[in-house]
Design a protein that fits this description.
By secondary structure, the chain is α+β, with helices and mostly antiparallel strands. It has helices at about 15-35, 35-60, 180-195, 225-230, 260-275, 295-305; strands at about 10, 65-70, 80-85, 95-105, 115-125, 125-135, 140-150, 160-165, 170-175, 195-210, 235-245, 245-250, 280-285, 285-290. Helix 1 runs antiparallel to helix 2 (about 35-60) and helix 5 runs antiparallel to helix 6 (about 295-305).
Length: about 325
Amino acid sequence: MFKKQSLPVIKITNAGWLYIALTLFLGFAGVNTSNNLIYLIVSALLGFMAISGFFGKRNLSRIDIDAEIPQEIFANKEFPLKISLKNLKGFFPIFLMRVKIRGQSLSEKGTVPLFRETLFPFVDKKSYSSGYMDISFKKRGRHVIKEIYICSVFPFNFFVRCRRLGASFDFIVFPEPKKSALLNILERQRLSKGEIQIDKTGYESEMLSIREYILGDPFKYINWKATAKTGGLKTKELSSLAYQPIVIDFEKIDIKNIEEKISCITYMILQLLRKNIPVGIKIGGRFYKPDISNAHKISILNELALYGIEKYDSE
């Protein structure tokens, strides 16, 4: 079991230690010499320290945070996490603010990635600013980001002040895709069954008609003969191919290591769907009918991500 460690509320920097030592030295010197000029200098130093405390604490107040998490996150693959820092103060901007986060697995106790951070130099009053940090998780399953800290050295770099925010974000990490020979076997089985040509438009088979060029159409499909006759760009409209669907039976995949099997199946599903081949899966007593939609892909990947994992409360 790991021991949870929180960031200190306040930490003295090297410059801060030097400043404190100088202040104490001059203070003792002033007491011993009764020199009014030294008293004034010490008073000014203490005043700067008081100002540092006031504005430093004010800088950390009334701050909210939001995170934009990608829909597809895979284990051991870095992804950009978008962080938006919101300044709710009406009269005071945010200066030199670092956002530090630490993710935790809800499906494997003891797994805590290191802190990741990003800097926000300035956020105006009643405004927000966005930044990115690259983050990754080693294990598939449910994860949560709930240790979110804001830290700043503002205004004089004497102290690093931190505060923990109450926001949390949970999400599912998909299995790590791993290439295997299984995909080649399925491809050979699919090709042996053949493909069906349908009358839906696409860019794969025979020409259905010639139409006006639409911005974004590939230039290689422009019909130059028709274009020369009419004086306007014309595009070939081709028919699409309907591929034979593939159903993966999880239990029949001959890979003993469960994690290896899940990773290989994940890779197969991604590759097949990328080629617009309908794919389904039988897993854990559930059957997902072959489809090529994005919602279908997310449902299957969620099922694979949570296979054999029991959710528990991490508190």
